[in-house]
Amino acid sequence: MQNYRELLAYSLISNNFEPNSRILAIGEISESLKNALALKHEIYKLINPEILSAKQL
Length: 57
Fold this sequence. Notes:
Elements (H helix, E strand, L loop, with lengths): L1 H15 L5 E5 L4 H8 L3 E5 L3 H5 L3
Parallel strand pairs: 1-2
């Protein structure tokens, strides 16, 4: 099931984003999906989005 999800995510991104697009992955992303997408896109990871709400301006 995990392989299917990764293939679906890869296909969605590859078909809808231009090459060299910047993509923010929120939460966990597998290394294999990250590496595959990194061949054509800039991938950024935000593992813990709660740290953003803890910051005060």
